[in-house]
Amino acid sequence: MAQPSQPAGAPAGPAAIGRPAAPEGWAIGIGVAPVLSPAWQGSNDMALSIFPDLRISYGDLLFASVPDGVGINAVNAHGWRAGPLVKIRFGRDEDDGGSPFQIAGGSDALIGMGNINLAGEAGGFVEHSFGQRHQWRARAEVRQGFGGHQGLLADVSLNHRSRIDRTIISAGPRASFASRDFMQTYFGVTPAQSLRTGLARYDGDGGLLSYGVGGTVVQPLSRNSAITLFTSLERLGEQAGDSPLVRERGRRTQFTLGLAFGYRFGL
Question: What pTM was computed for the model?
Fold first, then answer.
């Protein structure tokens, strides 16, 4: 939803929930998505969260939701979309690692690391759909954090979409890059944290945050509703994976699985 790829602070998945084409004018989508994901990015423990999925849009111009953020399609022509974007990244709790929507599972591996507050991320996106039926979609986002972290993030992805009767299948690779500030916030170990946890001190540097593949299967139920199965398999990059927090208390490979139901109606 961020993380839920954003996957720990906002695990990946809900952002990929499929929806029927938006009607002209204002539209609202409501849904719910149970998600099984790592308790925190890099965790060896799993957690079950139930994410609400409230979406508001105005035609093809404006979109707003917890997983996708708030954005404007300032450019929307010939297969191109681009514009400003603001997202939120949920904080990290040292007691259980979980998001505010966590209902089961969790992790005690963060005790002594301290909490990380909710963060905002402001930037922009560009997306291009191409192919004979626009079945390929390439997307890139760049966002600067404020609040819980001050890092710079960049996400890139490529998806191929196919259809079997009414079922829509989309899958492809993705990768995320982060600056030193982000790495240090989530994977660094300060002298004080080292004393409290027994972990070796670690200063993370900027670079590849994670890479992997993800996919969705969207089954429309009616003109305005759909069920979506979504999953991702990602691996942390060297800077994040070499953190003592991950090496000794977590794992580099991260798996997410979710199932969502959504309904859209116009105003």
Answer: 0.90
